[in-house]
Amino acid sequence: PWAPPPPQEVASLLIGNATETEQLFRVRRLRGSARVDCSVMLADPEGALSRDLFENAETWLIAPGRALPLDNAGCDAYLIDADGLPLTLLAWSAEQFPEDLLVTTTDNSLPGRMIALQRDGARLALAEHPAVFDAPPAERRPPAEACGVSVKGSRLDWTVPVSEAAVLTGIMSSPDGCHALALDRGEIFFLCAPAEAIPFSAGDLLHLTPVEIDGGVYPERPENERAFARGIHIESETHAVLVLRGNVLARGSMIGRQPSVDFRAELTPLKGCRGFHDACGSLVEPLEVSLLGDGVSGVVSLRAGESAALAEGAETLLVVRAEDMPVRNAECFTAPIDQPRLLESIWIAAAPAP
Hints:
This protein has three helices and 26 strands. The protein is mainly beta. The strands form four sheets. The chain has a 15-stranded antiparallel sheet that branches. It has a five-stranded antiparallel sheet with strand order 5-3-7-8-12. A hairpin with a 5-residue loop joins strand 21 (276-277) and strand 22 (283-292).
């Protein structure tokens, strides 16, 4: 006799209901704004991911013998629970289990593609599978003391100036590290940065120019990534300042200062500081910056919040932030630029560029 074809869906893995009753699954997938380095996530899924990175739960009622399809076009993760099933993490790559047309019944699926939900005494459990892990902890792991400024410090930020040149009439600073620079014509320019980034006084004529870095050769740029940064160049008769945020460090050559120290920088994980999750659930791995080359005395190591004198004191580089974010929420305020390496730095010269 004729039999209808078995139900099929394009999926990477299936959660099969191997119990004798209907089961209501609660499924939370990674946010669309989540960015994941697959090698980092799969090396330690429970530690790399946080619950903040997942969407609100969708509910699915699955009959006995049927299966819930889960897609994965690249590198994905889900949090799943049900009545009697504790919150469980699923994480895998499409390279491990490519999407295919799968039969969504528990008795007819490709080997390795079905994760069975089954009875475990009075509770439920998912069968052992390479994609099944314990859920991330409900409370974020506290960062180590060595993380220091990477946890407590503020970030760089600024407003877009209306005028290219204006006279500074006053500076008002707030406890959060932001400064309101009052300019003539009634304009206010806001700059959130350490106080040493503002070596200006009332009466100075300031030239304010947005800076865009898109390409170029910089040793600290991550491999296979294009140099990318945005900043603001502020200059008076006595000082030149470049405030920069991106995946490269600030240099005088970026604003045409010649000659200027063109140091080399090497970035390594900060000793004693394991990765931690920030307020947005992003995984932050602080870095240490090592400077060497012409104009640098030996090898100078900097952590976030530290500065180094360059060119025999004629220039200063201040590192505000230096961190990798291999797992991050790209739409949250702690990731102002959607890239895995975030460097925030300030270059200061005691004399203007010629």
